[in-house]
Amino acid sequence: MGRFKKLGIILTSTAFSVGVLSPMAQASANVKEPQERVAIQIASTETKVTKSKLIKQLNTLFPGKFNFVTEKDFSMGQGHYFNDDKTVRYDLSFHKVINNKDVSGGFTFKGEDLELENFYYQPVNIADALYPVKYSESEAQKIAQDFLKKLPNTANYKLREDNINGNFNLSRPLSEPITYSFSYSPTHNGVPLSNQFIDITVLANGEVTSMYRNTESTSKATFDNLDQKKKESDILAQVRENVSIDLRYMIDYNYQTGESIAKLVYTPPTSFSGVHAINGQWQTMHGFTSQVPKTKAVEKLASQPLEPRKKGITLAEVEELAKSFLKVDSDKVKLQLNSVDERENENGETIYSVNYMYESGNRGYGSSFEVNKATGEIISYWDVRREFNEKDGKVEPISKEAALTKAIDYLKEWAPSYIHNYSKPIEDTVYDKQGEQYNFSFPRIVNGIAVVGDEISVGISADGKLSALNVSNRKVDNWPSVNKAVPADKAKATFSKGLKLELQYAKQNGEDNHHYDLVYSPVYNGSLFNSIDATTGEWLQKVDDSKEKPAISHPTAGGELTYLLRQNVLEVKDPAHFNADTAVTKGEALKILVKSLTYGYDYGPYGRDDDTQSFNNIDKKHPLYSIVEQAVRMGILQPANQFAVDTTLTRQELAEWLVRVLKLESAAKHSDIFKLNFADASSIDKAYAGYIALASAMGLIDAQQNKKFNAAEKVTYADLAISTVRLAKAINEENRGRNYYY
């Protein structure tokens, strides 16, 4: 997966996307990537590569792999380059339906040698990537390593152990394929180069399904002498003595549900990203300094709400705004408005998206900008005119202070109703020499503290013009109370204990863009990007201890029980003495089932906090409230007076739950059409007969040794584990996994 999240794709002859780093990456100064990256399509007349040539290159890299895809199935995108990298890229993609299942792939080739820069592949058959898996993680790592060797100039690459890309170990539905991700960085003298990597993803069936490469040539590079570095223990003591932590809100966005969830967190200092390994100076956005960097205080842009720019702006008014806002003073360039689309964003707001193009000679430069219909305010914009405007020599940039004043003035002009909820930048801002602009980030403020992952971004060009504007204002229903935060000194002690250092070579944003400094970068509980849950005092990203969890021994369900334990679905304090033949209660069974089918957003402490209460005895204070309400949303349970949490689950009740998960209850209700092949069929309650018949026919529940179903008997943990794993396979086979389990 790439470093950038695309907020918009521009049609016509130029593709444009505003890239925003993930919340955790934004929280760290370790990330040096630009805030905006523009993809500029080249004219078709300038394209030197054909689709046939790309397919030939693909088949060279993956011999025989994609023989099932014909040339007609492939689509080739127009060549493009980026504003910060003029190397031309070419995209090749395909999508087919095989046996009613989607199979697709996309590939990006870079430069004259058509080097594979990134790709993704969704295979049609992933059954072997579900439990029991075909390949273990160590075997998948060998597959990833072998794939890496096929890529050019990767002999010095080394596997990273620090979760550089922020894999937060979120709960995964068991119906989703098991995926292993590996990140490799280039090294010099065995020391990795920061912010350069190749990510490789391998399914548990052995398929390499994605690769993303973010590297650059070091042929002209110089490096600090490794022999001159200070002792790690001395630098560690320096960081621990000076470390400070900040209380923040962090936004998690669930792309499956479109829901934004706020967490209250303590974040590590973002004012520095490391310590120079030779001279001990602090690494900042401006380079190195001997002074300990401090985070700026919150200062709101406006003390009171300002009036919207234009309430209830009409389509005709948006078109007039576009003509005025986008005009260009040149006879050589023609502005063309292609369309104005109306859509609803994730907040439920109506947005106008204006698609336009500038025609200049035989080239076209297209983009779009967005306007909030309710307020008439611009919420997304990138100035494409900079791509074709002729420059009279090098422009000396205005000062940072003057640029900040300009940025605030532009916000008051184009997005006034938002700014009372935002602060002046609390992170330092540097002038982007390559992009020739300042990129300011104005964080959202809630309950007096900054929100990570929700900000207004403004670009100011060297001559003081508005070059970019993006308003992120996530709709969040519930903000955890600041009063719930554990004491700061307790969180700081946790940071200090979890703090380690990683030696890296880092390139600075100075005049010498080829020298790599030797830097000790802080690693927090095994990750470069990490925070502490302020309500629990625990790390958000925990060290994966699944490998240390012992196996559960059982004659028929040992494998399934161990799998659920290591996937954090089953909670067992003492696996060695766990009796899996114990009857499971309805409450515990429901928790296992829901956790096995969801990503974990809805039943955690930051899950949905609706005003619903489906059962009189399960209110918001009940520990299973979120689980029960999620089960109701999924259709497993029907609202009633009481839910017997502590009552033992029976086999007929489990059959009903399993069938409801598969959305087959309509068929199950017609009990008269089913024939039950059990010795005790005549004694089975007709209300459950259809559910039992379907669950049995699909292999979700087996008859017992006496060939009876024993519908009223207890369900054990072993029984439930086997049925849960089989249910996950059935969901995957039926292609139902993405319908409602989020």
What would you say this structure looks like, in words?
This protein is α+β, with helices and mostly antiparallel strands and 742 residues long. Helix content is 20%, strand content 26%. The protein has 14 helices and 30 strands. Strands 3, 4, 5, 6, 7, 8, 9, 10, 11, 12 and 13 form an 11-stranded antiparallel sheet that branches. Strands 15, 16, 20, 21, 22, 23, 24, 25, 26, 27 and 30 form an 11-stranded mixed sheet that branches. Helix 8 (558-566) crosses helix 14, helix 9 (586-597) packs across helix 10 and helix 11 packs across helix 13.
Principal-axes shape call = globular
> Residue-averaged pLDDT, rounded?
86
Q: Main beta sheet, described?
A: 11 strands, antiparallel
Output the structural class.
Answer: alpha+beta
Oligomerization state of this entry? single chain
Keywords: Signal
Pfam families: DUF4901, SLH
Protein name: S-layer homology domain-containing protein
Domain SLH: 611-672
Features:
single chain, about 750 residues, alpha+beta, eleven-stranded mixed sheet, 14 helices, disordered N terminus, signal
Summarize the structure.
By secondary structure, this protein is an alpha+beta fold. The protein contains 14 helices and 30 strands.
SSE blueprint:
Elements lengths: L4 E2 L12 E2 L2 H4 L12 E3 L9 H11 L12 E3 L3 E3 L2 E14 L2 E10 L4 E8 L14 H13 L7 E3 L19 E10 L2 E2 L4 E7 L4 E7 L7 E2 L8 H11 L3 E9 L4 E9 L6 E3 L5 E3 L2 E3 L25 H11 L7 E12 L5 E11 L2 E10 L4 E6 L17 H15 L16 E2 L4 E10 L2 E13 L4 E6 L16 H11 E9 L7 E10 L7 E2 L24 H9 L19 H12 L27 H10 L16 H11 L3 H4 L17 H12 L19 H17 L9
Parallel strand pairs: 14-29, 15-26
Antiparallel strand pairs: 1-2, 3-5, 4-6, 5-6, 6-7, 7-8, 8-13, 9-10, 10-11, 10-12, 12-13, 15-16, 16-30, 17-18, 17-29, 18-19, 20-21, 21-22, 22-23, 23-27, 24-25, 25-26, 26-27, 28-29
Helix pairs in contact: 8-14, 9-10, 9-14, 11-13
